[in-house]
Specification:
Number of domains: 1
Number of strands: 14
Shape: globular
Radius of gyration: 22 Å
GO molecular function: monooxygenase activity; oxidoreductase activity, acting on paired donors, with incorporation or reduction of molecular oxygen
Bound molecules: flavin mononucleotide
Number of helices: 13
Strand order of the largest sheet: 1-2-3-4-7-8-9-14
Keywords: Flavoprotein, FMN, Monooxygenase, Oxidoreductase
Helix content: 40-55%
Order of helices and strands: EHEHEHEHHEEEHEHEEHHHEEHEHEH
Distance between the termini: 21 Å
Low-confidence stretches: 377-388
Protein name: Alkanesulfonate monooxygenase
Length: 388
């Protein structure tokens, strides 16, 4: 499978660096943002979920209508939509977008956040419910034959779904870093989403996800594809990028101190319940920079509330760092910056082409080697080499 790129598409000009007070959706801005991702050859955009935020379904449908290739990932917490309704909504979006719908599941990492929308299950129960939910979606997408469901969390009779996904099914992603996340995602997900950790820790997590997939009886050819998320801070040279990184950190801290951040200062002092954030904070204690360019002060400054590890460096350094993760087996690379739209355009102009050119070069080199091997085996002429 190819290496693909994900980014967020934001609905207004508010950023963590320059937060606007109570920003509402600016439809023109959202369309411009989405088209920029499409034009600069990003493959997906995530529409995230939080209890107080904009609705990802309507945003996703708007993005799909404004773009041609960009796939739309709807973040979904099972407590917010009944599974048969979600199955139809996703299949409808898939038809509207000609096969570009993807769903990203969030079991729910915080009891307090879940309680804001009436969900009082504990985390183990939330993952158990997620497992049942994914099975119902797949069943509903499979055929229009009526079926009953008599599970622990859902029971219904004779549901029949006439809205089929364009390609028979819709990619299902699961995000998280707990054992429950590995178990459910390893068994059922097409894609498994991680936050950016150092190479060694990322490899450990991939091994656990693959082990869970093996345990669930999936063949090696059907393991979840790995998605990894960063917040790159990049510029023409490494020095300029580091200056930008420190300006970014100052702005994050300044906005927090002034009470302008969406992550209040008080929240950064309390321990997060989700394992993904706990891991980031633990790794941050080891030092500011890990591996080639993975930077942690943005993690500590925001209490690891969300994807927060930066990759700092020139366009080439950031491209090389991304390639380190590709070499590890990560196929979906999510990058979004702090200066949202400007950073997305910079990545599109300077980072994506570098990563793709290197991957194409390697593929060419492999084809060339394969061609040479085939030719020497046949004792033929080297002009038969398949290479552009
Ligand atoms: C790539 C990725 C994207 C995520 N998107 C969201 C999101 O949009 N909304 C949200 O509440 N949590 C999001 N999360 C957080 C986790 O899914 C969440 O904390 C999980 O339910 C429990 O985490 P744990 O298994 O690590 O403890 C995301 C996580 C990852 C890795």
């Amino acid at each position: 499978m190819p290496t693909e790129f994900i980014s967020l598409a934001f609905p207004n000009a508010s950023t963590e660096l320059s937060p606007l007070p109570s920003p509402s959706v600016d439809p023109d801005y959202l369309v411009r943002y989405a088209r920029a991702l499409d034009d600069y050859d990003f493959d997906y955009t995530l529409q995230p979920y939080d209890s107080g935020g904009f609705d990802p379904w309507t945003m996703g449908a708007t993005i799909a209508a404004a773009t041609k290739k960009l796939k739309v990932i709807i973040a979904l917490r099972p407590n917010t939509v009944y599974p048969t309704v979600a199955a139809k909504a996703l299949a409808t979006l898939d038809q509207l977008s000609k096969g570009r719908a993807v769903v990203h599941f969030i079991a729910g990492g915080s009891d307090a956040e879940q309680a804001r929308e009436g969900d009082f299950l504990d985390k183990a129960q939330r993952y158990e419910r997620l497992e049942e939910y994914i099975r119902i979606l797949r069943r509903a997408w499979e055929s229009a034959e009526p079926f009953d469901w008599n599970g622990k969390h859902y029971q219904f009779k004779q549901h029949s779904n006439r809205v089929r996904p364009v390609n028979g099914t819709i990619p299902v992603s699961v995000g998280g870093s707990s054992d429950e996340a590995y178990r459910v995602g390893g068994a059922l997900a097409d894609i498994f989403g991680l936050w950016g950790e150092p190479l060694k820790e990322t490899k450990d997590q991939i091994d656990k996800i693959y082990a869970a997939a093996d345990k669930a009886g999936r063949p090696a050819s059907d393991r979840p594809r790995i998605w990894v998320t960063f917040r790159p801070i990049t510029a023409e040279t490494d020095d300029l990028a580091w200056e930008k990184a420190h300006r970014t950190l100052d702005a994050l801290k300044g906005n927090q101190a002034a009470g302008k951040s969406i992550i209040p200062l008080a929240a950064t002092g309390t321990a997060p319940q989700n394992v993904g954030s706990q891991r980031l904070l633990e790794i941050a204690k080891r030092g500011e920079v890990q591996d080639r360019a993975l930077w942690y002060p943005t993690v500590t400054a925001t209490g690891a509330r969300g994807a927060s590890t930066a990759l700092v460096g020139s366009y080439q350094t950031v491209a090389d760092s991304i390639l380190d993760y590709v070499d590890l087996g990560c196929e979906l690379i999510s990058i979004r910056g702090y200066d949202n739209l400007n950073d997305a355009i910079d990545y599109g102009r300077y980072v994506l082409p570098r990563v793709r050119a290197e991957l194409a070069r390697r593929e060419g080199a492999v084809s060339k080697q394969e061609g040479e091997a085939a030719v020497s085996k046949q004792g033929g002429e080297t002009t038969a080499i398949v290479d552009g």
